[in-house]
Amino acid sequence: MKFISPIKRHSGFRVMVSQQFGANPEKYSQFKDDYGNPLKGHNGVDFTLGYDARKMYGSNINTICNGRVSILIWDNPMSTKGNGVYVDSDIETGSDGKQRFYRVVYWHAMDIDVRVGQSVKMGDYVCDMGNSGWVFPQPTITNPYGGTHLHLGFYPYIYDNNVWKKEFPNNGFDGAVDPLPFIGNINPDNWETKEDIESIWEKLFPVKWAIEKIKESLGLSKVANPL
């Protein structure tokens, strides 16, 4: 099965890895796997587009493989809970004769443009890069773009005894594995977009962020809505 980079270059901004899989075990031990065990480290790979969070905020995120949207988590663009899209890859039969698919998680989104059950092709646009959820540094009114990045989670599932389940549930990363060996080159030739990633959202974001924080303090924010 083929996988590609989740972000395209734009106007000289290169796709970069800001945090590797398995990094910072002391930071991620506060999170638990399905069995209640602390994680051994970062259970994904973090991507940025260059260094300037203001420039990368709102940039398009595309699917790394063919598949189907299985889960959406959406609250609001500045949600402290986090927003994301889960895409389940097409099923393949490995050399060992076992069937597998890969659940790919695109997290910290500020906008989502797909629906549950939708089929997607490798390279299709699914969401926009943001800083919702647990990010560092946390966004503030004076630094509303702080923490902007894409967290890419990559979970192999296997069909065993007539049940689909995580292939490596006890690996210390809640079943996630490093996606980079599957993706390969994250800046391949001709992998760029001409779209303007400095959208109207960028200009309005600081105001919207402040409004949402006020609404949150008053208990008026929209409740998270996993579909």
Q: What does this entry look like structurally?
A:
The chain is α+β, with helices and mostly antiparallel strands. The protein has one domain: Glucose Permease (Domain IIA) (Distorted Sandwich), CATH 2.70.70.10. Helices cover 13% and strands 28% of the residues. It is built from four helices and twelve strands, in the order E-H-E-H-E-E-E-E-E-E-E-E-E-E-H-H. The strands form two sheets. Strands 1, 2, 4, 5, 6, 7, 9, 11 and 12 form a nine-stranded antiparallel β-sheet that branches. A three-stranded antiparallel β-sheet has the order 3-10-8, with no helix packed on it. A hairpin with a 5-residue loop joins strand 6 and strand 7 (99-107).
| Overall mean confidence score, pLDDT | 88
Count of DSSP E strands? 12
Radius of gyration: 18 Å
Estimate the strand proportion. Answer: 25-35%
SSE string, helices as H and strands as E: EHEHEEEEEEEEEEHH
CATH level-two architecture: Distorted Sandwich
Which percent bin holds the helix content?
A: 10-25%
Residue runs with pLDDT of under 50 for 5 or more positions: 222-227
CATH structural class: Mainly Beta
Assign the CATH topology. Answer: Glucose Permease (Domain IIA)
- CATH homologous superfamily? Glucose Permease (Domain IIA)
| Euclidean distance between termini CA atoms | 27 Å
Overall number of domains: 1
Largest sheet: 9 strands, antiparallel
Question: What would the principal axes of the Cα set say about the shape?
Answer: globular
Helix vs. strand class = alpha+beta
Per DSSP, the total helix count is 4
